Structures are given as C-alpha cells and as structure tokens.
Amino acid sequence: MSFAREARRVRDESLPLSTRVLALRCCLRHYRPIGFDASFSFLKSLAGNVREDPAALLLALDLLTTSHAAWQADLRAYGVLRLCTKQLGLRVPHPLAPNPNRPSHWYGAPREAASHAVWFWYSKGASADIDVHALAAALVQRGRFTSVQRSMFELVRADRVARFAAVDGTRDFQTYCELRDSLYVLRQMAVVVGNA
What is the reported pTM? Predict the structure, then answer.
C-alpha cells in the first residue's frame, strides 16, 4: 500500500483508533527520514499521545505528510537535475553528492528531528561505538560541540566512513551493522551541528 492510501486510513474516523495508529506506522514504513523508531518518537514528541488522542494522531499525520511532500518535491527537482547532468555526459553522480533518494534529514525541521534522533539513539543506552556514544552524550547535554569535540567528531566520522567502506558485510556482519549504526548517528549529528 502507498503512503497516500495509509494516510487516508489514518484520517478515516470510521476505523478504530488502533487501526488508524497502525496506518500511521505504515506511513512511516514508506517515509522514515531519521529511522522508523526515531521518526515515530519524534512525531509523538511533537503531537502528543497518538495512541489515545485522535487529534494528536491527525497532527502527527499532518507533520509527517508535510515533510513527505517536501521530500517528494526534492525528489522531483533531483530528477530534473540528474536528467540535465546525464545529458551533459555525467552519467554517475558523485557518491558524496546529496541524494534525496536516501533522505538524511526530516524535511521542514531538520535540526530538531536530527537532535531528537541523536537523543533517541543515545537514550537506548548500550552502544558498541564508545567514541560515537561519547559524542552523542556531549551533543545531548549541550546541544552543540566545543571546538575540541567538533575536531573529534570530524576525525571519528572520517574514520567510520573509511572503515565502513573497507568492511565486507557478508563476512563480518556484526561489524558492518555496528558501523552502519554509527554512521547513521554521525549523519544526524552533522545535521544538528550544521555540518551535513
């Protein structure tokens, strides 16, 4: 089912509230720019208790739909850009160039959502990556990095990108998953500190 169909089910007041909440979660399967659980948590932090309050559920859907629409517009613009660059002979985009096919932020509230995602990840506690966990703690506590923490952030991010590129996910799946998770949090940190 599509995002639009699930959104219609969320708005359908003839359905039980639990079914409508499930439809919202299905919308998040289609569009989860900061991860499924972090996106759902972010919506609840803005809208309220979506499981018990129909008004909060509709507000959460409106927030998600607004962000989704902005992402769709970005995708269309990117499609036009890619068409033009292909006509100029640039067939493959640079791997570090922004690509909205893999959204890296919440459209409409990137810093707030990224900050929430870092908090959400940090609040889960256990992390295999001590450096990323320490950076997350600093960001959650202060909302920004000191100059020393920013330097550490840059070094850690560069190291994790290099290590992720070198790991073979089929042979060392655990390391692959740990590095993927670390890179996800580092990407959200970059949005928070304005270094995306």
Answer: 0.83
